[in-house]
């Protein structure tokens, strides 16, 4: 009876199933040929998600990291924005659990549903039942910033120094935003390049849970644009956002290679 599932459940169930397929592929293939594993992972997950969405939601458009960009999405009312395998590099490294499957639904200018599967961590976070945020951070605890392990923006270290924060390197935008949702980090910041599919699903779950999510200049994250580039992002507990946006402005002002503001 899949046709009666609501959009939240469709996102959750498809991200979960794609994640299980990726786990099986990883177990079967091993890590001897990482490039082959990465290509197979991207393709297997994309093909599953694309065909399942075509079956379950035939009138909707799809924007996928691994699919051809169909411009029909620009006049569609509903667009599924998917990253079949976020953290592809980490997926191909033995023992790493920081990779994810992202499934989000955009409808008339807003993200409205989504799910992030973290298959190697055995969890799926979704808008069906967004995680519950503790009301306050333990007082006196050092702030923890999670950022890309392979492409951290240069300004992050100076931001951490300014805030007395610790930096936690991690792969996958989805895994990092889930780390904030699960209380393993307080802040995710990125700049220098990314695309809509890297953030849509974790951002809609983060917003449903009450986290702040914006561009690094504080403006809104906008999706289903003609150019899907969305190069920078800040996700954090809401009470930290004004301090962090000021800190980013400050370190960016002192560094011409700092974050480029929204344009
Ligand atoms: N400078 C950049 N330009 C383009 N994409 C970037 C980028 N930095 C990070 N990304 C993308 O953002 C996702 C998370 O990156 P990271 O693990 O470094 O934090 C990855 O998605 P994929 O794994 O889906 O390609 C990565 O490709
Ligand atoms: Mg990605």
Topology:
Elements: H1 7-29, H2 34-56, E1 61-64, E2 78-86, H3 88-91, E3 100-107, E4 110-118, E5 123-126, E6 144-148, H4 155-163, E7 166-170, H5 173-181, E8 187-190, H6 196-209, E9 212-214, E10 233-236, H7 241-253
Parallel strand pairs: 1-2, 6-7, 6-8
Antiparallel strand pairs: 2-3, 3-4, 4-5, 8-10, 9-10
The structure holds adenosine-3'-5'-diphosphate and magnesium ion.
Magnesium ion binds next to strand 2 and helix 6.
Question: Could you characterize the architecture of this molecule?
Answer:
- This protein is an alpha/beta fold.
- The protein folds into two domains: about 1-125, Fructose-1,6-Bisphosphatase, Chain A, domain 1, CATH 3.30.540; about 145-255, 3-Layer(aba) Sandwich (D-Maltodextrin-Binding Protein, domain 2).
- It has helices at about 5-30, 35-55, 90, 155-165, 175-180, 195-210, 240-255; strands spanning about 60-65, 80-85, 100-105, 110-120, 125, 145-150, 165-170, 185-190, 210-215, 235.
- It has a five-stranded mixed β-sheet with strand order 1-2-3-4-5, sandwiched between helices. The protein has a five-stranded mixed β-sheet with strand order 7-6-8-10-9, with helices on both faces.
- A hairpin with a 4-residue loop joins strand 4 (about 110-120) and strand 5.
- The chain is globular.
- The model has no long low-confidence stretch (mean pLDDT about 95).
- The structure holds adenosine-3'-5'-diphosphate and magnesium ion.
- The site of adenosine-3'-5'-diphosphate has 15 residues, from strand 2.
- One of its GO terms (biological process) is 3'-phosphoadenosine 5'-phosphosulfate metabolic process.
- InterPro entries: CysQ/Inositol_MonoPase, Inositol_monoP_metal-BS, Inositol_monophosphatase-like.
